[in-house]
Amino acid sequence: MKFARRLGRAVRPTEGGPQLARRPFGEVSYRLAKEETQQVRRFLAREWPAADRAIFGEDCDWTSRPVVVEARTGDEIVGAVLGEVIAGIASSSTCVSPSSGADPTCGLF
Known about the structure:
The protein has helices at 2-7, 18-21, 38-56; strands spanning 65-73, 76-86, 89-96. The chain is an alpha+beta fold. A 3-stranded antiparallel β-sheet has the order 1-2-3, with no helix packed on it. Strand 1 (65-73) and strand 2 form a beta hairpin. Mean pLDDT is 75; it is low at 1-9 and 11-15.
């Protein structure tokens, strides 16, 4: 880890849940994978349900619901944000306004 080398000491990962916290430091290794393998898919299929219940509760609705937000001046639309809500969390995928440029808020907010 470059960060650890700059500090001149080992840096213990703090993320990864209790299954990693119980392992001796240095036993877990990390690598950048080239693709999502079948082994990764099986791991996620096995672990996500318990994580979802712990974070969102038993009755979480994972249905994706589209969201459209219009910005108006009078009757004229001056911007729009498109996205979705899943499990009560909204995310946007598109934001357009005439003067948005590189502004992630589209200059609307």
